[in-house]
Design brief:
Elements: E1 9-11, H1 13-19, E2 31-36, E3 40-46, H2 66-85, E4 90-102, E5 111-122, E6 125-134, E7 137-150
Antiparallel strand pairs: 1-2, 2-3, 3-5, 4-7, 5-6, 6-7
Length: 151
């Protein structure tokens, strides 16, 4: 049985980049706030018109791609897994996507909050339920699985 987590942590962009191998344009979380071990975390992504996918993803009516929101959820969960494992460097491998739903479009200027909650953990594998929110409204949701390994 897991011990209750009482500490709150945060990861700014420098700490996120130290943990994840992703870089622009595939680093899809700007910071992770309110980290409670691997139980709960909130990742933040500021969506700007300058991002390269808007050149080809409906350039006349830019919409943030839903699959990138799922990746942002997975990256938020990855930061949580690395912090919970207690040491770096580690690699987090994306294992599964289940029950993905896209509810509303996300536009340039929006700030996405990735709310991630652990469903289950077995050794080095985690499963999370995530919701992407803009202004408190769910814009996407999914369950993702991840595995942590040495780099």
């Amino acid at each position: 049985m897991d011990a209750p987590v009482t500490t709150l942590e945060a990861a700014d962009i420098a700490r996120v980049m130290a943990m994840l191998p992703h870089r622009y344009p595939f680093l899809l979380v700007d910071r992770v706030i309110d980290i409670r071990g691997d139980e709960h975390g909130i990742g933040i992504k500021n969506v700007t018109i300058n991002e390269p996918h808007f050149q080809g993803h409906f350039p006349e009516n830019p919409v943030f791609p839903g699959v990138l929101m799922i990746e942002g959820m997975a990256q938020t969960a990855g930061v949580m897994c690395i912090i919970a494992s207690g040491s770096t460097p580690k690699s987090v491998l994306f294992l599964t996507i289940d029950k993905a739903k896209f509810r509303k479009p996300v536009l340039p200027g929006d700030t996405i909050e990735y709310h991630m909650n652990r469903i289950q953990r077995r050794r080095t594998m985690w499963w999370f339920r995530g919701e992407a929110k803009v202004n408190g409204q769910i814009v996407a949701e999914a369950e993702v699985g991840a595995m942590i390994s040495d780099r």
